[in-house]
């Protein structure tokens, strides 16, 4: 099953390399991976979607903790989360009728048109991964010329924020 | 105070308590060598960087401190990699230092440039590429801290040449602050109590003592724990010597070539207390069939080892010594284990190690190890290489003092023993150190004989020569229908002459009756010495758990099966006076 892991880590030129190397070395498949800054200086946040059994993902978390720069790893899979991904999709729209259809769809998905040209228009859509999957499948018949997705970012919802798994979970399991 | 990078690095190494450095200079590392000799640290000039890493690794294991090795850029750096991974697999704390091309050349494929910090990411606990001289002192401090704390491991520091040359204002680095590196040493009391209850109620318990016991220096605590609970103690290969072999509770070591009774005890046990071990595949056999009736308590400082290979019922993450200190007093009265001990004794009687009389026509490795054990009174520090002789050494030598057996366990690096023994001897100058190597292994790092001579290191070397890559040949014989492919090492040198070429006295033995005299002669010689033992060419190691089989399927012994191909003529006799040119086939010499 798919797991959403969030890791915070000290920034540095080799950290991302180290994390990716670890996944390759241990044979863990990554569906998506995003990295970006956080509110704390010199702390980066990594969101990963990995596919694997519960025990395999537990191993991922433990191995991630062995990376010296990694401070905290959370498995958000079972938590209440806000998940977002952004996609830019350039769709063929040769006629005004087609263009109108696409614009209607853009409206339904609460997406936006960010560029329009002769024969194509570019749509920006944000949301959980399945919403984007759905929009992509609706647009595909019109002819997608180009597409890019950022990969998922996720955050636990307010009340449950701070329910870190991983190292914490290990401690908790020991205590219980 | 203004210092350049070399001065800061040398000073930092000295401040970390470094006494010995193993290395070899080259183009980019020269600024460091220009400075290093001004500091009170011994430097051993190796002949190949891989050996430097092995020396630092074995030094670290024996000394229980960080070992340091260094090399220049490019090939100097990449040559270290095998040794670094070896240290990584066996949790050995080393700091490997390499100097890269100047910053302005980095990324230009400059002469002798290698992306060594990219290469060492998966083989180190942590690595650094130092961009600024200002960071150097802090990096060294962090590196040593990381190498020796928690589960020890190798740390690599790569420094561009100009960073060594630049001068900066030197500041003593502050305390180590690594929020992402907080090993848990204590162990949870709740878990410890759970383990205590399991131990009290177990009827057929077994303790596994791994290398963690040695790293944590917890032999005393382990003995107290075993004696209080009256539980037999099994070692892992790297855990050998963590529990005295002469202790009545000592129960051998199991696994691929371990004792039958040890494998059977694990297989039939109802409780396993793993202490500082990692349930490796050579030890466990088939994971899914490992100790089917046992509950498992696992004490280890590395949470990633808990539940990695086998299911664990009570994980205790912590330092072995501290956990044992808390665990032993928590345990009340235990069940009687009399029946269990009787069963183990029966297995021991039924499946003893094979013993040879002294009058066999051929020489067998157990005869050598037994003689060595007797001659050294079991007190030598043994560094075994990798293969059949390694298994024989572990089976027949018995260790009573901690850290007296060293070998490449996880990585199985052929060529470990000679450099390893040099490192071990540097750590324990008071000890008699023996490197035991097969002829295949010995040829992988024999260039280090020069270090023995140059540095007057009195390591004794036993080359167990069967003219084969013995373990591979054994597998080809047993599992590949005797199809011997490229295992015949005919063409190997005359080891006695080879030693002589390095100024090291050598003896050659091919009869069991001559073993003792040669060992005595080598021991009596004050400096390094070498004995070449010509053993029976197709000797096999048993017991054996075939790859992928369960411990219960251990094969105690098998009658000798002649090879499908004829055995080549053995190498020339010791007495051959005039050297014969080596033929293309290498059959004569």
Explain what the structure shows.
The complex is a heterodimer of chains A (176) and B (589). Chain A folds into 2 domains: 98 residues, ACT domain (Alpha-Beta Plaits), CATH 3.30.70; 72 residues, 2-Layer Sandwich (Alpha-Beta Plaits), CATH 3.30.70. Chain A is of the alpha+beta class. The two termini of chain A are 26 Å apart. In chain A, strands 5, 6, 7, 8 and 9 form a 5-stranded antiparallel sheet that branches. In chain A, strands 2-3-1-4 form a 4-stranded antiparallel sheet, with helices on one face. Chain B folds into 3 domains: 168 residues, Thiamin diphosphate (ThDP)-binding fold, Pyr/PP domains (Rossmann fold); 162 residues, Rossmann fold (3-Layer(aba) Sandwich), CATH 3.40.50.1220; 177 residues, Thiamin diphosphate (ThDP)-binding fold, Pyr/PP domains (Rossmann fold, 3-Layer(aba) Sandwich). Chain B is 35% helix and 15% strand. Chain B is built from 23 helices and 19 strands. Chain B has a 6-stranded parallel sheet with strand order 3-2-4-5-7-6, with helices on both faces. In chain B, α13 links the parallel β11 and β12. In chain B, α1 packs across α2, α3 crosses α18 and α9 crosses α14. Chain B is globular. The C terminus of chain B is likely disordered. At the A-B interface, α1, α2 and α5 of A face β6 and β13 of B.
Task: Give me some keywords for this one.
heterodimer, A: 176 residues, alpha+beta, Alpha-Beta Plaits, 5-stranded antiparallel sheet, 4-stranded antiparallel sheet, elongated, B: 589 residues, alpha/beta, Rossmann fold, 3 domains, 6-stranded parallel sheet, 23 helices, 35% helix, globular, disordered C terminus
